[in-house]
Amino acid sequence: RRIMQRIGRALSCTAAATLALAHVRSNEVFAKEEAAAPLPKSVELRCSPLSPHCSRIKVFFQHLNADVQHIGTSPLSGDSVQAVVDGQPVSNVNELVGQLRGSTSKPPVFTPAQALEEQRWCNWTEEKLVPCIQVNVFRSPKEAKSALETVMKKTEMGAINRSFVSQAGSFYKYLGAKWFVKRKLKLEQDERIALMSMVDEWVAAVGSRGFAGGCAPNQADLAVFGALNSIEGLLAFEEVLTQTGVSPWYQRVAAYRAEQST
After folding, report:
1. pLDDT in tens, 177-213
2. Are 250 and 225 in contact (CB under 8 A)?
3. Model-level pTM greater than 0.85?
4. CB < 8 Å & 24+ apart, contacts of 205-209
């Protein structure tokens, strides 16, 4: 009986060692493939200044030390992002971001301790947080008008166009947000409460770590930061910072990015 137990333990250890070795080798192959992907030097993004999707992508490329130019389009243009990378139009910028996910530069860009956790939160940001942010910006005619006016102050637009966008555009975006909540997000609670809950969920996931990536932001940190950064200066952003525990983490990511850009 003891002999059989020893044989069983030996087989278990051998299987574990084999799986571990296979995992290491697969990671080495993956790392070589990712390292072969050239890092972009210049990126041009055309999108609405209120797009959390665009902001998330912009933060990603900035972290790769690319020269990012953001050309703001009409705040009524929706959430589409047109990208030109190193002079070449990119049909699917999300796909490119995925390809560059494991790329390295100096300092290291992404070295997540838990790749699955990182990917899960990146998907969560794109599928849940970003849409919820979008509807919160335009959740009432008053907030929609305020958001559009904030953006228009930074754009070259005539007085007549500004008035039209402010009045008709805000109501249009408000109705669109309400339809989006009802048909797409299927929220069972107030949009703002839902946003607060999502942000608190993220804060709980980061926990006592400085960042989700540990000592430095990983792609999940950058994705959430970029999405929230798109509404900085708006009422929704102020309430998120004051009514959740996200402010310390947000400031740490902002400080890290500022330090890396110098």
Report:
1. 777 766 777 777 788 999 999 999 999 999 999 999 8
2. yes
3. no
4. 205/117, 205/121, 206/249
Place of tokens 């139009």: 89
* List of E strands, the chain: 42-47, 67-72, 82-85, 88-90
CA 85/CA 142 separation, integer angstroms: 37
Report the C-alpha gap between 77 and 100 in whole angstroms.
27
Rounded distance, CA 147 to CA 154, Å? 12
* Amino acid type, 230: S
- Torsion-angle region of 106 (φ positive above 0: left; ψ -120 to 50: alpha; else: beta): beta
- Whole-number Å distance between alpha carbons of 3 and 1: 5
Q: What is the pLDDT of residues 5-43, one digit of tens each?
A: 333 434 343 433 343 334 434 444 444 444 445 788 999
Task: Give the pLDDT confidence of 135-158 residue by residue, as tens digits.
Answer: 898 888 889 888 888 777 665 555
Structure-token match 């390295």, residue found: 104
In which order are the strands placed within the sheet that holds 42-47? 67-72, 42-47, 82-85, 88-90
